[in-house]
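cron nightly-structures :: item 1 of 1
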Amino acid sequence: MSDIDSSFLKNTWYVCAWSYEIPAESLLARTITQRPLIFWRDQSGQVIALADRCCHRAAPLSKGRREGDRIRCMYHGLLFDATGKCVEIPSQNYIPATAKVRAFPIVERFNWVWIWMGEPDHADPSLIPDTHYLKDVNWRGTPGYMHYDANYLLVTDNLLDFSHLSYVHETTLGGSAKYAAIRPKITRLDRSIRVERWLLDDEPAPFLRNLKTWPGNVDRWNIYNVVLPGVLLMDSGSAPTGTGAPEGKRVDAAEFFGCQAVTPETSTTSHYFFQQSHGFALDNRDVTENLRQSVLAGFEEDRDIILAQQRVIHADPEGGMLAMRMDAALASFRTMLEKAINLEQSCVPKAMNQAVEI
């Protein structure tokens, strides 16, 4: 398993924002894969994404001014339309063809805004993972965001190996030490790694105490895909032991669906978008709020250990990491991602077109 790589996959969709983060009249500045960007909505409500750098003297357009569907650089007054083309230069009538900034393909779907950082001609919306749970009336959840001062691969590693639940989240999302001893079923798919882990006939995880109770032990599952470039889609839950959950019968169950996206900001910082939704007690706001608090507590525990891990790596970049059996899923994902990046950087048109499909 290789150490942190500062290269990024470009021909893929990244989550760049929650829909609510880009209101009708404001600008949002955010860096994705080390490229500063500016986002806003045109008068029809469509999200626009441009490079946050005026082509004239490199002033950030995020310090500019909205003028309808256009944005004016407030250094020397160049005006750009939604395609990035300069349409006005106050000091001259002639506008060079090179007076433009890069525009990026955007898709807004189920409360997430996705951006394509690579070749625009390859931006295929069908490659966006299904996250309808974020907006499904049969599920309830609260959107969340965290910023990490850590490389995005460390965050993705954390999502691919849930054996850490027994230790990092011993009193919150995890619980029993038995969970860490279970060997999950790992399947490599075209663009994702699928992980399935069951803990049978054990106590419910601590966070469930404020959400749902049972008289005895439960069967517990986490079944999820981590999709390139780093999107987790997870079916999880617990049901009374012996009621048939492993066979697909979810009786008196607490079911959850998690959508989480790890997006690189720079080689050492990351964006983390998440929502854990519950499919039971839909009209009970206390359940939604208690779940939100439990998830935030658990994710703060994740961030604490990952930031500590990043500091150790930063202090000794050549120290390396020892691969173990528990690393099978994350090692497979890193191999898949590395292959996609290598294909993309080979500059062979066919390979670039296939990079996001493996």
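cron nightly-structures :: done
The longest strand covers residues 192-202.
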